[in-house]
Batch of 2 targets.
Target 1
Amino acid sequence: MSTWDWQVFCKETTSGEVASTCFGKGGDITYLDWLLSAWGWTLSVSVLALVVALVFGSLMGILRTTPHRGLVLLGNAWTELFRNIPLLVQIFLWYHVVPALFPILRGVPSFILVVMGLGLFTSARISEQVRAGIQSLAGGQRMAGLAMGFSLPQTYRHVLLPMAYRIIIPPLTSESMNIIKNSSVAFAVSISELTLFALQAQEETSRGIEVYLAVTGLYFISAFAINRAALFIENRVRVPGMIGGGGH
Amino acid sequence: MIEIKNISKWYGAFRVLTDCTTQVEKGEVIVVCGPSGSGKSTLIKCVNGLEAFQQGDIFVNGTSVGDPKTNLPKLRSHVGMVFQHFELFPHMTITENLSIAQVKVLGRSRDEANERGMKLLDRVGLKPHAHKHPGQLSGGQQQRVAIARALSMDPICMLFDEPTSALDPEMVNEVLDVMVQLAHEGMTMMVVTHEMGFARKVSDRVIFMDQGSIVEDATKEDFFGKPRSERAQQFLSKILSH
């Protein structure tokens, strides 16, 4: 096995010369520059997809717990549609099929299509968690809200959702970490994110070990940061007197 | 105040309520009792439309509960309800539990709502606990807060659905005391309970239900003294034998 050579990241991508600062100058970029830019793309895809997933997942999860049959059906259909097709296939569908069916989407950048694909795929999973969170509250809470004179939306807003979201923070954390990891499928439609960087950089430099270790490290750090942030939120919103609560 | 007219309700093919008719006058205290599964909780939840019914109608202060055009949230906002399992909002402090519906439903200012809430909390003897969350109170204390929360909306009548059934025995009385006090102040109350002591002490009438029907609807003197139906006699002999 050859020795490791971490200087590979200081090389310029075109000339192959080692830059003294490890960062490229005057329009040239080093592999380190590229790696950081790829990390930025990974985080951008992930964060935007997470926003899409939380918005649609919450909406659909809520619909599935309403007393209106039509809305329940809509939420169920949405969830089944997006969770029964493999993620990679969904990304290709957004890239190849959706713009063909809806010409208005032809000019949309593949970045946006990937965000939608990853976001809606994850929304099906979040919808399932939101539904479970709401249903885990005793039916009495809904009745108590309604009995106070709250409308159904007010009952969700003030009574059901604040507790349901607290309950599902752990699975939502896993889902947020999954989004970071699943964003690697974006390489399939040529988004210059970490996985695409890894494939191309190792090809150009033949330094697969260094390149993949660096990319692995960045994925790990990103997912772990989400994990810590979620733990912080979980502690902040903990309800005193509940199981695991902070006491007086 | 409350008129229940020929109410019937089905869960699928199963009939849970059969042709129930009764009424509660202003200032009256009615106790609804009967074996479990007899439909008493379902009947009381029909009164403010928490449970739908398929036949008959209920009028609360003249407003039809069964009419789809009725503004149910508005009707519910002045019918107080107390549940078996308290159902305080666990993520809110006691103060917030008492004020949120006043602010969001009645449109009172936060100061006004807090002041009203505090007065009621003081009345049920829990003012020092205002800053706590429900999970930090005992069952009896939570139920007293739940009564105060219902009163905060200035209800025209109060519904109690087995308010002491989920409590440890030593906490039953602190809740019943609050209810007795309410009754003496002239509150119109419909109370599903097995507390026959409460029924004897403050009720005007007792309704006995069995298998979804109102079997007996009598003054408390008649109900405890000479129950007409055999079913009510059996029930009374069982729960009063100790």
Note: Confidence is low (pLDDT under 50) at residues 244-248 of chain A.
Target 2
Amino acid sequence: MKKDRYSVFSLARNAVNYHQDWAEAWRSPDPAGEYDVIVVGGGGHGLATAYYLASEHNVGRVALLEKGWIGGGNTGRNTTIVRSNYLWDESAHLYEKSLKLWEGLSQELNFNVMFSQRGVMNLGHTLQDMRDIYRRSNANRLNGIDSEILLPGQIKEIVPAMNVSGNTRHPVLGASYQPRGGVARHDAVAWGYARAADSRGVDIIQNCEVTGIRQENGSVRGVETSRGYIGAKKVAVVVAGHASVLAQMGGFRLPVESHPLQALVSEPLKPVLDTVVMSNAVHGYVSQSDKGELVIGAGIDAYTGYGQRGSFSIIEGNVAAIVELFPVFSRVRMLRQWGGIVDVCPDACPIISKTPVNGLYFNCGWGTGGFKATPGSGWVFAHTVANDEPHRLNAAFELDRFYSGALIDEHGAAGVAH
Amino acid sequence: MLEIECPWCGPRDQDEFSYGGEAHIVRPLSPENLNDREWGDYLFFRDNKKGQHAEQWCHAAGCRRWFNVIRDTVSYRIVSVYRSGDSSSGESP
């Protein structure tokens, strides 16, 4: 399981062999009969959970089950924005932990996740937007999170292509700016965690769909899968859009609803936008990938759905907003458009929690903004699973908050556009 | 995009409608007698079904009336439409 480190020397060594001899990045073992922990779901969050279970908590036998291929769900479908400028203390601390992990992730995983701290700008278009932005920005600073307020002239300096003239339907009055925010390469995050987890002994088992959760006396015993029954002392479920389906197998319900969320990319352009621009009010967000494509995110459809596609009217409204902000983009052609399924909580915050079944844990409800939390989510979830109790960073994100009423209302603050 | 058949106005584009979530959730008659668990279940917890889902729609840009739809949440195909108060088979209770 010991792997060669990726470095300039391994690159040179393999160049000599015309890159024919690179070792596989992770094994594809057959499932064993029983594990200490089974992680269900091979997206970024699941892979990170498996990695931290092995690396931080020394859990011996860990398997990760993925019904398709790793990173093939929302990890491969999102717009890759990373930031931590959340209003409330609970979410700010959780996302900031994640951002700190992002900052050292390529070194820790020995895999270039192409984390690019190019800054994230959240625009305000009304007086109330600006009041909210000042409030959130001040709250961020009190929590030690970098945040600046930009006025239209300063925005224009950073993003010359944006129309800040005030002569628009939704004039740009200002923005909050988090310089440490940015984007990362989504596939590399999945592959990096997979490789690092595998080298610590985690069995990554793809094309293995969980079809049932076996319980005895209120405790989990294992999972039924398309490749047979696999026993486990603990089962950790991280399946994004399908959380309710897995919860049903466990015999309980969740306060989440699954919605289609769409995104689109343009043809590749020369560099025109070197930061991330988001607007909650007109509901668009855009950045430019290293390949030159404009990566544009839309909003969710109001109706629930598992079909991985949404309505054209959502795209239409989204593109209209982007073109109003960036008139120069009006003749850019779009290459492709797609949808993913996100599970949305009533308070726009995740559930990282124990469940009514002993030894069964759920990490879900990230809604439209889970990618940025990938490292932090896995880190606190691994702690929760290994110790059978939440870390203080996710104690407020228990399922019980929907009974106690202690919701973390991020809808108005940062929960719209991710 | 969906084409939804309003029970009063006939088939119209999805953009004329607003979505009202899962149907047939009955507000408890005496909420003061519920414990936190029962109230939380009523308020927040949903079936979120993969498959045929009973849901509420409102013809917001038309007659502004609410009605129920059975829709497949995977194919998005609308199976049936019925008025509030009717059962999904179309008969009045």
Note: The longest strand of chain A covers residues 257-268.
